[in-house]
Design goal:
By secondary structure, the chain is an alpha+beta fold. The chain is built from 15 helices and 22 strands. The two termini are about 30 Å apart. The structure holds flavin-adenine dinucleotide (FAD).
């Protein structure tokens, strides 16, 4: 490693027995740290501190002792050294979207990567070099300027890093695999504060574990992604059915998607009708089932491929039309806006049975708040075709991810709405696998981290012992190092 990339932290650690919080940090210590990084260092009371500690889910209200707004890998390395030296809990903030709020911690140091949002495209090589704090809106903006794209999240403010390091579902996944299946290499700051490269050739075990390990093995400061020709227009839209038809529509959806071409992706979501969906007033507030078909190839080929979805039943709205890919990638931003209270419970299904569908339809009858959604993300296609051993993501054979996502604003309703989600989850659990996509776990589910990795869990624990034996990176869905 180039030693110039590794600035030493020259501060004196105080002689204290217990150093679990930052209470003892002296002003001069913080000043020295501030001088050693190029990014801002924020403390409670500083301008920008409140914004920097805020994450997507308003249920999370944590007060870090320090937030360092990193400008590059060197700041990240300095921050890791500093946190280790002073025994500070450390959290890594990418897009800040994780529902469990793992991007921030109380009393510790937050490594805020959001200033590191550069995306540089090599259109000849079809490669994007992306910094660790970029969000999908940054990624799509730069890559679509060249008619290129890679599987990415369906809300533009979600972080590239957090989504990719857990898996990465999106409209292009059945055609081009998960977001992480498109990663060529990464620059990673390890728990030892070193900057290393991870790829199939360099540190291949770290590369394997980073892609799926959801932040357990290091801080990705940049990624190299493969790109593909997409758009600029694709065929997509919403096909909306009344609640009364939901059972039949979901059965059709399951049967159609089990045999659909890989270029077809279609999400399904229960929502309450609202004006932003372009629906007539009498449907506002009513529970509806929306299908969101998408075709990754040409608009002409898409018309034939999506026709069965548009023809089935008696939809009350059909907005399928050629749409700019960048617009598609932002169309759910309002529904999943930041700043509300959220609680998620998620399963994976192999092949949702008729009984599972009936149970879901029954449970969903009255969505408890206007912005609550219950959604299906179909998998298969290129996700299943990828080499199962190439990354730590274990759910290559799962058919569909299913998430119950109440969303509300009044803290007085927390208990009621979390209970609603838990009861819904329990009612559908008998039909689901025991697995779960790690990126959809909430903050109260540490025992389900094993379910998120299944048989891979022990290998990941061994890897954790190798790369992070002290469990320094623990503000995540945590994999404890093997004994
Ligand atoms: C509105 C919304 C839409 C979503 N849509 C999708 C979707 O379409 N597809 C999908 O697969 N998932 C989706 N998700 C889930 C999403 O993948 C996870 O929430 C993911 O963790 C978000 O990443 P982030 O960088 O925004 O989050 P953060 O909260 O910043 O980070 C999440 C975790 O990753 C770690 N982390 C972040 N950056 C780095 C880094 N550079 N290096 C190492 N660790 C890091 C953090 O420490 C934390 O543990 C969505 C979530 C939300 C809230």
């Amino acid at each position: 490693m180039d030693s110039t990339l590794r600035p030493e932290v020259q501060v004196d650690a105080p002689e204290l027995e217990t150093m679990a919080t930052a209470d003892y940090l002296e002003e001069t210590t913080v000043e020295t740290f501030t001088e050693q990084v190029h990014g801002e260092v924020l403390q409670p009371g500083d301008a920008g501190y409140e914004e920097a500690r805020t994450v997507w889910n308003a249920m999370i209200d944590r007060e870090p002792a320090l937030i360092v707004r990193c400008t590059g890998a060197a700041d990240v390395m300095t921050a890791v050294d500093f946190a280790r030296e002073f025994d500070l809990p450390l959290a890594v903030k990418g897009g800040g979207h994780n529902v469990a709020g793992n991007a921030v911690c109380d009393d510790g140091l937050v490594v805020d990567l959001s200033p590191m949002d550069a995306v540089r495209v090599d259109p000849e090589a079809k490669v994007a070099r992306v910094q660790g704090g970029a969000v999908w809106g940054d990624f799509d903006h730069e890559t679509q300027a060249h008619g290129l794209a890679t599987t990415g999240g369906i809300v533009s403010t979600t972080g590239v890093a957090g989504l990719t390091l857990g898996g990465g579902l999106g409209y292009l996944d059945r055609t081009y695999g998960l977001a992480q299946d498109n990663v060529r290499s990464m620059d990673v700051v390890t728990a030892a504060g070193e900057l290393v490269r991870a790829s199939k050739e360099e540190n291949p075990d770290l590369f394997w574990g980073m892609l799926g390990g959801a932040g357990n093995f290091g801080i990705a400061t940049s990624f190299e992604f493969d790109l593909h020709r997409v758009g600029p227009e694709v065929l997509t839209g919403r096909v909306i059915h009344p609640y009364e038809a939901a059972g039949d529509v979901l059965r059709f959806y399951r049967d159609f998607m089990l045999d659909a071409p890989d270029e077809v992706q279609c999400y399904a979501a229960f929502v309450r009708g609202n004006p932003a969906m372009g629906l007539p007033e009498h449907l506002h507030g009513r529970t509806l089932l929306g299908l969101l078909p998408f075709y990754s190839g040409s608009v002409e080929a898409g018309r034939a491929a999506l026709e069965p979805i548009r023809e089935f039943g008696d939809p009350i709205a059909d907005t399928v039309e050629p749409t700019r890919y960048t617009t598609v990638q932002q169309r759910s931003d309002d529904l999943y806006r930041e700043g509300d209270r959220n609680y998620w419970k998620s399963h994976l299904f192999d092949d949702p049975s008729d009984e599972a569908i009936d149970t879901i339809v029954e449970q969903v009858e009255s969505l408890p708040t206007p912005l609550t959604t219950v959604f299906f993300e179909w998998m298969g296609g290129a996700i299943s075709d990828a080499d199962p051993d190439a990354t730590a993501f274990p759910h290559r054979d799962a058919t569909v991810s299913f998430t119950i996502a109440p969303k509300w604003t009044d803290p007085g309703r927390d208990d009621e709405l979390m209970r609603w989600a838990r009861e819904f989850f329990e009612a559908t659990a008998p039909y689901a696998t025991e697995e779960v996509y790690v990126n959809l776990l909430d903050q109260d589910e540490p025992e389900r981290v094993r379910d998120a990795y299944g048989e891979r869990y022990e290998r990941l624990r061994e890897l954790k012992r190798e790369w992070d034996p002290d469990n320094f990176f623990r503000m995540n869905q945590n994999i404890e190092p093997a004994d």
